[in-house]
Structures are given as structure tokens and as C-alpha cells.
Amino acid sequence: MAERIISADSHVNPPKDLWVSRAPAKLKERAPRVESMEMGDVWMVDQNMAGVIGLDSMAGRKYENFQAMGLTYKDMRPGAYDPAARLADMDQDGVDAEVLYFGGPATHPVKEPELRRFIVHTYNDWMVELAAAAPGRLIALAHLSLFDLDEAIAELQRIAKAGLRGFHMNPFPNDLGLPPLTDPQYDRLWAAIQDTGLPVSFHIMGPRGMAIERLYDPTPGVKEAFISLANISMTELIASLTFTGVLQRFPKLHFVVVESGIGWIPYFLERMDATYQKHRFWTKSVLTEKPSFYWYRQGHATFIEDHSGVALRASAGIGNIMWSTDYPHSDTTWPHSRQVLAEHFVGVPDDERRRIVGANAAQLYRLN
């Protein structure tokens, strides 16, 4: 069987005029737009800053030239937003297909319904267009906002009918003043997701309790602490979905923790199982199986460079882990992904490598 290389986590940065060019007259002045400032190009949404061009656009740069701000769209690789350029960069990297996650202001929290629906619908429509530009190679994912569950379910059903293969949403809506995902009110959303058969993705957002402004804190070490801690927040999500019975009640619900790495998963599964074994009686646990059962049945995770995770792949789940390039972000392996894969998979059986570098993603996103 030929090996198919699929990045299970890559990103886009939308065209500068995506929303302005499609906005109705009454939303023209509030729609997301790029403005040039001293700090470089920034995304503005309804007069509020929603993102800075920086670490999301480092593909091809040497580490010593990384910067968190001060860049413009002219400094960005066109492959971030142009499908033809994207395919050329994928070919250069030896990657057959990419699962595309958000960039720009697509996930910016907007409470006002009309503007929010326009932003989300426009972004998701563009993702449909990207997928259509290269079927089977550009696997575009939608975004769902959780401010209104009726709205979220309607958009979920819309993007499923449009042919998108998955979507992402905020793993911690309680950070936005909404109920946490463990609240029973989300059960109708979980049911709707299960009915579509689409996997739901939760991308790392940063360490819990730490605002993104930490990336610009002048205190030595704060920036590095923020970056290195971001993936560990996914332990809270996994534990919450598992122990509260969400995964048990919705057995066909598949979820992905994205850009989280995988080396910590074996330890955390062991920790959850030990917690269940020792504490399920006095806590009156709702689970009928140990927590690791639900992970192996329904959980998935992506990694970029993770030698520990590959070494522990059997405990993390051969069928549960997926490699990615993170193009065009600062952690990307582009354009040396084939070399990175060769270094990571020394001594790994061919069938296991094939699953992790492509076949698992192909199965999850129904690309076979």
C-alpha cells in the first residue's frame, strides 16, 4: 500500500478583503478588515483589534528571524490564502493533503448576532471554496460559534450539506462567559454533531488563565512559558468530556485535540484510569468503562514534532494520533517535513507509520 502523507493540522490566513468584499452595506464598516499600523498589519473587527500578523506567518523563516508582530501580508507566503500557491508549497514539502484550520479573525468572539453570523458564514463559505479548488487535497474545516446553540446547530447542518469534512469550536466557552462544554445544555449540540458524523476539533488556545497578551509581555521568559504550556490545557478538555459522560452518552462522537502533541497522552490516560479506579465509588462516577476506553474509541490528537510521542505511540493509540506540518505557523516543519518524518519514524514498522502520517486522517475525514 502506497504511503499517503496528510497534514492533520495546517492553517490558513484569509485574504485581506474576504469579509469587506462580501459584506452587505450595513455591515461594511464593521466587517473584518486588515489595517496597517506601526506594529504591522492587524485584523480589525468592528473597531476592535482581533489579531496581529506575526507567528502565524513564519513558514520559510529561520528561527532567528521569528517575530510576533511587525509583519504585513506582503511578508506572508501566498500559500496561506491562495490555493494554487498552497498546492505548490505542499508539493515542495512532499505533502499529499492538508486539513485546514482557522486563521485571521474567523474565531474572534462576536456577541452581536447579525455580525457574528456574517463573519462565520463568510469564513465557512470560503472554506467550501478552498476545498472545491483541490478536492481530496485541501480538507477545509468550518468554524462554529457557541454564543447561540440554535445558530450553531443550523450552521453545523449547513456546512455538513456543503460537503465540509469537519469543524472546530472553542474548547473553553466559559472563558467567554458561556457555560462550559460539560453543561447539559450542550447535549443537543453533541447529538447533532453525532448525527452528521463530522469530527469536532478543539485547537489549543493558550494556557488556561493566561491571556494572549502574554506573548507581548516584556518580562523575560513569559512568552516562552505561554507557548510551552499551551498544549497542556487539552488535559482539562479530555478529562471533562470523559468523566462527565459526554463521550459515553454519545458513542459516535469523535473529537480531535489539535496541535497538542501526543507524548503526554499515555501518562494522562493512566492518570485518569487510576482516578477512576480509586475514586469512582465515593464520587459516584457515571462511567461504565475506564476513561482510556473512551479515548481509544473516540479521541484523536495531532502532533508536529514529538519524538517521545512516537516512541509511546502504542499507549497513545496507533489509530488515534495524526502527524501535521502546522504550515504556515511558527512551529511548522515546512519545507523539511519529509526529513522530519524520516527522523521521527526510524525503526517504526511501515504499517504503523502509514497510519500515523496519513491513513488515520484519511479515515477520520472520510478521504478513502
Structural overview:
The structure is a single chain. With 368 residues, this protein is α/β, with parallel strands linked by helices. It has one domain: Metal-dependent hydrolases (TIM Barrel), CATH 3.20.20.140. Helices cover 36% and strands 14% of the residues. The chain has 13 helices and twelve strands. The protein has a six-stranded parallel β-sheet with strand order 7-8-9-10-11-12. It is globular and about 60 Å long. The two termini are 13 Å apart.
Could you give a short account of the major beta sheet? 6 strands, parallel
Structural class: alpha/beta
* Run of helices and strands: EEEEHEHEEHEHEHHHEHHEHHEHH
Overall geometry comes to globular
Rounded to the nearest angstrom, the radius of gyration is 20 Å
Please give the order of strands in the largest beta sheet.
7-8-9-10-11-12
Strand content bin: 5-15%
Could you name the ranges where pLDDT drops below 50 across 5 or more consecutive residues?
none
Write down the CATH topology.
TIM Barrel
Helix content: 25-40%
CATH architectural category? Alpha-Beta Barrel
> What's the CATH first level?
Alpha Beta
Topology:
Elements: E1 6-11, E2 33-37, E3 40-45, E4 48-52, H1 83-93, E5 97-101, H2 113-133, E6 138-140, E7 142-143, H3 149-161, E8 167-168, H4 187-196, E9 200-203, H5 222-229, H6 234-243, H7 246-249, E10 255-258, H8 265-279, H9 291-298, E11 299-303, H10 307-311, H11 313-316, E12 321-323, H12 337-344, H13 350-364
Parallel strand pairs: 1-5, 5-6, 7-8, 8-9, 9-10, 10-11, 11-12
Antiparallel strand pairs: 2-3, 3-4
